[in-house]
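Standup, Tuesday
Yesterday: got the pipeline producing structure tokens again.
Today: sanity-check two examples.
Blockers: none.

Example 1:
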Amino acid sequence: MGGKRPSWDEYFLELARVVAQRSTCIRRQVGAVLVKGERIIATGYNGAPQGLPHCLEAGCLRDEKGIPSGHRYELCRGVHAEQNALINAARYGVSTLDSILYCTTQPCMLCARMLINAGVIKIVHQGDFDDELALEFLRQAGVKSVKLSARGEKEHGN
């Protein structure tokens, strides 16, 4: 048995990267894993609502309208990975109070508000999405946010 055993943060973030592979978004593949007591309670990836055509089939509405990343979230066929993780937990009656979210990218403002209200206490993410207002809301709500590099090194946090 060689190699370094991953920390919990590295382990669950790696699982979020695997979950992201199920994404049907043309622009960005995102995966999220909700954890409580070092146990997975729900996962989610970004894609169209159940029963609707995925972007891979129908095309990207945001590309068609020339909407840049980080703007006009409502003009998207997809549900964000973080939202799907929360929805999946709710669907099966699993409490998200005091949970930790592992996500391949920083949550946007819409997701940050939902995560705050769902009782998520910490977010560990990786990726290039940048939404300073979302980070500020998380700080104000007392939700710890940590960005890890691909090698598991802490880059920033509150």
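Example 2:
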Amino acid sequence: MMKIGIFGGSFNPIHYGHITLAQAAREQCRLDEVWLMVSPQNPLKQQAADLLDDHLRMEMAQKALVGVDGVKACDYEFHLPKPSYTWNTLQHLSADYPDYRFTLLIGGDNWAHFERWRHWKDILRHYDIAVYPRDNHVGTIQLPLLDVSSTNIRRRVQAGDSITGLVPDGIISLVQKYYSK
């Protein structure tokens, strides 16, 4: 049975923090793969004005993960009803991949408000959950708090500052192109 970690997010844009977390979760949770689920719409967040088109975020995620073993970008939620409720996604994944076991990877900030999620009790009953540290919230995955965010990267691009070392070199030009105003 394949063990897959599901790491959802807008990845607007993807950065080294996402990749480092996915790799740590894969190792520490003994997962075969981690799927970065590029989400079209988070039901708990307002649609951001600076949210890049789904397919462009997917393109950057795929390019950023070239050569990263066991981590892949996934557009699965693009084909599901919006908004993207985690319970719906997990149910569809379980139906489409009956021989896979899914572990949900979420940040400590989301874990602190998990009871606001649709069908949160069902998620707890049917799926493993691994929590990563985020915004001063602790997690079950051992990882130093990474001082990198998509918001900061977008701001740096708009200010004309360097993003070297924050995103993989292979997507720097795309991030600059897509997020400069």
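Quick observation on example 2: Residues 12 and 49 are 11 Å apart (CA to CA). The chain has seven helices and five strands.
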